[in-house]
Protein 1
Amino acid sequence: MRAALAVAGVSLRRMLRDRTALFFIVVLPVVIITVIGTVVQNPGGFRIGVLADQLSGPQLATSLVDELKSVGPLHTMADEPAARTALRRGEIDAVVLVPTGLDADLLNGKDVRIPVLAGGAESTQSAVRSAVAAAVARHAERVQAAAFAARTTGTTTAEQLPRATALQRVTPRIGISTENIATGSDYLPLGFSYSAPTMLVLFVFINALAGGASIIQTRQLGIYQRAQAAPIRVRSLVLGETLCYLVFALLQSVLIVAVGALLFGVSWGNPAAAVALIGTWALVGTGAGMLSGALFKTPDQASAIGPVIGIAFAMLGGCMWPLEIVPNAVRTLGHVTPHAWAVDAWITVLSRDGGVADIAANLAVLAAFAVAMLGLASIIHQRRLTS
Amino acid sequence: MFGAFVIAAKDLRQRFRDRSALILGFVAPVAVAALMSFAFSGVESFHANIALVDNDRGQIASALRGTLTGPELSDVLTIREASDDAAARRMVDDGDAGAGLIIPAGFSAAAVGDRPIGLRVLGDPDEPLQAQVARAVADAYVAQLNADRLAVHTALAAGVPESRGAELAAAVAKLQSPESVQAQPTGYRQLRTASYYAPAMGIMFVLFAIGFTARSYFAEQRTGTLERIGAAPLTRGVVLLGKSLAAFVYSVVSLSTLAIVSSLAFGAEWGPPVPAFALILAMSAVLVALTALVVATARTERQAEGLATIVTFVLLLLGGNFVLLSQAPETLRRLALLTPNGWALRGFTDLATGAGATSAIVPVLVMLGMAVVLGAIAAIVGRGRLT
């Protein structure tokens, strides 16, 4: 056992001394979690573009813009061409062009049509337009009421508008209340709570695969053979390398968990479930690293092909986008990778407050992956070292 | 000069004989772009599925139902009747409906009175837009009723005697909203996922070639090939030129192949051939400059590999190759324009959405400028190193 620990210690030191590897282990995960976490945010509705000069226009125009805030976040655009370009690039979902003569026309009793340019697919455009139409209709309520009161009392709409506006706030209206059916989400929470667990799954696996290079190098240099000249058993050598990968995977996990919690305020859910999941995933990573060391022939292969396999598995397994959005066939295919089971378990833990019992099945599948890969890897390693 | 071509041809022959270079340059980008466009195929358009419960069955409720199921909204939503609240809840919970809309009993009778009963929307936290659209279409419908009530109240507050209340109520029934939304065509194409991720993935894989080329240079230095070439009447500059030319051709061929295959196989839009090819050429020129910089800065094969990896990943992350930049906050979009790949993607996005060939001019010029600056730095650093 002491021999195994010594082997593990030496291998681990070697892996951590490599500065390029440190970039992949420390810097890259943090940067990727930041970038993806910032992009995957809930925009809170449709992103509506309005022109800058509409923000400080006459009263009715500005109050219409205010009303549009209920549709989603407002983006101020310098001018119409800029707004159209942003719309074309998909940076906003719609542009509402409040007509310049809006106040004058409405106060003179004319009907006004408000041009809306919507982006996206046809159906998305209709949805955005419906949302804008609802906001416009709410705005029109008080204009219509003021015009009516003006007609019946022989005054002007402008005179009645403050009254209608004040009354709109207190008059009972047919409201619409939204109630969320919260039996648990099928997605991870958005933002960093999305990017941190998925990138934990991705990086522990990829870095273990790429780390297989060091086993191959040791083997190519004949260090294992020389080690066997000492009274050391092959089993201890293999065990030592396994321990090295396990510690490596755990270090990587702890780093990401700590960065997620401290830097980005990610809540990692039920502690027991999180620990069980991280531990099991570290074992899967260990198996992947050992297998990579056993199957690849040159260190270059491991460090070049390893990441490609890692990224492909991550894509299929739902680390790059939620599996909930992909066609069924792709989702089923995704569950060939251990990643999908791990991400599913994180969804249960983080979005449905799941405990160890709720993710037991996923843990079992992941453990099976780990055992299979470790078993296969140690058979190959033992055979290589004894022959 | 002729020597440079010989060296380029030899490098290219070597590269096209190497299976992993072929996989990275041709198979992987097509496979990944195909996978991404397939995975996102379901989320490019939006359609709401709404479970409707009519507990009222009165006149206004039927009219509301008529509007919701009418042809104008058929693009936006599909209504499914649910027998009661519990059934609607179940449908939303099981994902059979994206949101629910409940018309409470007594709604029609109360809608015209002073104590209206509100509508209820059942939302699924995973599908916030579905609930928003359900809310918006219902809101747009009841807005007229709300406007009518507000009109009566305003008129009364403006001094019309209470005794004329019935007359007012009859008069408002004929009113129409003075503001409405007018759909205006944008004249652009929608940016499809395939059109963004095909170039994004293509650029990602050619950027990986930086490490490849840089390593091969140092490998030739290590094996003494470069020294032997030194015996021939060739300067180090010609050798570098030859290698750069090979990297350039590899990148152009890889990206062009992807452009052709992805347009034919899964409808990725690369825009008109001439500007698209100009973007490919400019991106490839930057690639060569970056490679030269890595070779000039690094001292060993290992350093070159590490440096290339870091440069590649930083560019990919900032440039938006991993995330749909249009969904990103503005800061990230600005950061992307510090990278050549960010400019390339902007160019391809503009071409894909039909912005016209001239839209590629600025990205091409910026990338060429970057290539010149990076190449100059590489030359200065490299010369300092040699003397």
Protein 2
Amino acid sequence: MRLERGIISSSQLMFLVAGYVQGSVMVVGYTNMVTKQNTWLVVLSGLAASIPLVLVYVALANKFPGKDLIQINRIVYGPYLSKLVSASYIWFFCSIAGFMLSYVGQIIKNYLMPETPKFIICIVFAFICAWAVRNGIEVLARTSVIFVMIIIFVILITFVLLLKDMELTNFLPFFDLSLKDFIQGTHIMMTLPFCQIMIFLMLIPYVNKGVEAKKSVILGLIIGGGSILADTVRNTAVLGITSTIMGSPSIESVRLIDLAEIITRLEMLVITLLLIAMFIKVTVMYYGTIIGIARLFNLRSYRPLVLPIGSIIVSLSILSFDYLNQNTDFGVKIAPFFTIMFEFSPVITLLVAKIRKLPE
Amino acid sequence: MTVIFLLTITFIAIGLFEVPALVKNKHWRELTVFSVFFVLAFVLALLQASDVKIPSPVRGLEYFFGEILKLSY
């Protein structure tokens, strides 16, 4: 039985994946704390390390055509164990949506509206996401095409305008990185922006041609990875080693744009980028949570659940982090292990399915 | 007090928005799941509005991964 009547094309899936990965453009700024001037290196290695995992996700989706993650779990693990596995996935999606919403609230509160309470920003943002989720996947897919274009345009224009402030000596010394820091940086990059596209296992059933999904997912991943790479290179080239102590290197570097004192204060562009990219990211996670719950309880429609779950996500975002530093600390130390647990488990699902010779 | 009042109004509005269609179509299963999450969301929001300290789930994750599993950088 189909929960969602909408169908998206494979090119829309590509833009959705790209927009989803670009949602982390600002979040990964804190990797600078670990890898200093070599962050561009770990972006590339993280992208390379995540492609095999993404191929596993696509193989899993192709093995069970027209089924989403919860249904696959049910087939592979049986009726009782699958409930536990699926519930933990749903908790994962819900908590990531909450943490990302919290990040939006923190950044806006820190840089734009210091007097506004954080929960107002979170509620307004979550309301737009709830509206998008209620309207279904097609609306989100169509908007993502425009949004990805805007994000790429913003990254390119800020890159060009900052060319005169860049100093290539900021990248020196090359490869001055201990093995532990390299592994930690790669781990953060692999889990936070790239492998989180595991959520698309919930959306792939609604793509009209399931076979072509592989190409569009990989292409979308590369577009998103390219945007993150451009952003990281710009921040390091402009700010150098100071980027390691900044809450958001993207905003701080774009703040330096000054073209004959006419084109200044362009950090609004970066905030726009944050809002629209986070909109895609939070909405996809939110949608995955709702579809997952509706599937777990065998419901006929997911629409009634949108507002209560949205309220839970807002509560979660308010009570999880009080300051931006807590968010950063969690993201650097614990979050890579927390997310890799869920991102690696589709591999186990695929192995179990191979051993049990499913589907018959 | 104002916050709690506004919160109650909002949740009543959500209930009035969703429940009549569910009852009219006799979607009882959906209504049950909706009510469970609705009550959960309302209690969470009410506790936060009345300044009760709810432990953050991040603390729990940090304890679980850092202290029990020893997986932390």
